[in-house]
Amino acid sequence: MSKKIILSGVKPTGRPHIGNYFGAMKQMVDLQNQFADAEKFFMIADYHALNLIQSKEEMAQFTLDLALDYLAIGIDPKQSTLFKQSDVSAHTELAWIFNTITTMPYLMRAHAFKDAEAKNKEINVGTFDYPILMAADILLYDTTLVPVGQDQKQHVEYSRDIAQKFNNVFNTETFNLPEPLIMKGVEIVSGTNGQKMSKSYNNTIPLFATREEITKAVMGIVTDSSGDVPVNVYNIHKLIKSETELKEIYDKNKGKYKILKETLIEDLDTMIKPLRKRRAELEKNTEEIKAILADGAIKAKTKANAKLLTIKKNIGVL
Ligand code: TYM
User: 45-91 pLDDT, tens per residue?
Assistant: First the structure.
């Protein structure tokens, strides 16, 4: 079997939530630890975030914050390459090449575009082109596996289509086809109101939440009084406790929503506490974080630029 190459990314748009963590970021750490001999690339997708974050100060802060988040959950720069998308200009260059072989109707079928279109009268070109840049992110590294949440599945499928289209148009075997890795049970983590957890729905529990923030979020979980089990509480609880453990707790406290919420607060705090602590330690030395990103940029560029040379040869510009 050929070597595993794992790549994923997160947009620096503010604090990640436990949906990002259980849906994708935890898998990145688990894969890193499980596959010592795989190549691993974890990215801060700042150019994707630029569609939303258009303030110099916010972009700089959120980028540094996300680097801290990655490191605090266990991404180890000795084992994985942690880098910023904008540091590797091959991504946007390849995105241009892909633009030329992709049709507008095809991009118009993307869920994210359709959602944006339903909400916005005027969509920027960057939002429209989002899947193309993401295909470039993935294909530049000969990625075989992309750990993501369910909402990114279509984007990985787009990457596969674009890889195939390129290979056909230029009659080469330039790209292999990457696979998404979507963990069962956490494909779509639900938020405090039962909808998909998402910053835009205002229903999140931040990954590095303080005890007070956890309490506030959990107490705000929407419950209906129709059954013994508050479904929205249970669905978050099952991220951190097994069904067997939960059965005992929920059987013992049928209909006692307050106790169940308090148990969830305790369990979330126990899970988050060591992450918070590690993040606070790392935060003391931001120079070191910047050095890790600079080093990651060099490693990512070495791989991406070599691939871009092959691509440029295959399209006839070199
Ligand atoms: P972003 O920053 O929106 O989300 C980061 C990851 O979190 C997952 N996620 C969820 N998973 C389960 N339940 C939820 N409620 C939930 N909310 C978010 C997302 O699926 C994602 O995996 N386009 C990507 C960033 C990106 C990327 C890439 C990813 C850019 N280039 C290349 C992989 C490979 C995104 O929007 O992430």
Answer: 999 999 999 999 999 999 999 999 999 999 999 999 999 999 999 99
**Which pLDDT score, from 0 to 100, does residue 280 have?**
98
What is the spatial distance between Cα 80 and Cα 69, in angstroms, rounded to a whole number? 15
* pLDDT score for 2: 76
Taking the model in full, what pTM does it have?
Answer: 0.97
Residue nearest to atom 18 of ligand 1 (CA): 20
Ligand 1 cavity residues, CB under 6 Å? 7-11, 19-20, 23-24, 45, 48, 134, 137-138, 146, 148-149, 151-152, 155, 186, 188-189, 196-198
Question: Separation of 170 CA from ligand 1 center, angstroms?
Answer: 31
The rounded Å distance from CA 7 to ligand 1 centre is 12
Q: What is the pLDDT of residues 218-276, one digit of tens each?
A: 999 999 777 889 999 999 999 999 999 999 999 999 989 999 999 999 999 999 999 99
Q: In the structure encoding, which two tokens stand for residue 81, read together? A: 């390459």
Q: How far apart are CA 101 and CA 166, in angstroms?
A: 7
From ligand 1's centre to the CA of 147, what distance in Å?
Answer: 9
Atom of ligand 1 nearest to the CA of 197: 15
What's the rounded Cα separation, in Å, for the pair 191 and 199?
10
Nearest-atom number in ligand 1 for the CA of 13 is: 2
Spell out a b/e string for 69-82, using b for 16 or more CB atoms within 10 Å of the CB, else e.
bbbbbbbebeebbb
Using DSSP's 3-state secondary structure scheme, residue 29 falls into helix
Q: How many angstroms is it from 148 CA to the middle of ligand 1?
A: 6
DSSP assignment letter at 190? B
Rounded distance between C-alpha atoms, residue 30 and residue 74, angstroms: 9
Count how many residues are written for the chain: 318
Q: 251 CA to middle of ligand 1, Å? A: 35
55: phi then psi, degrees, rounded to nearest 5: -140, 130
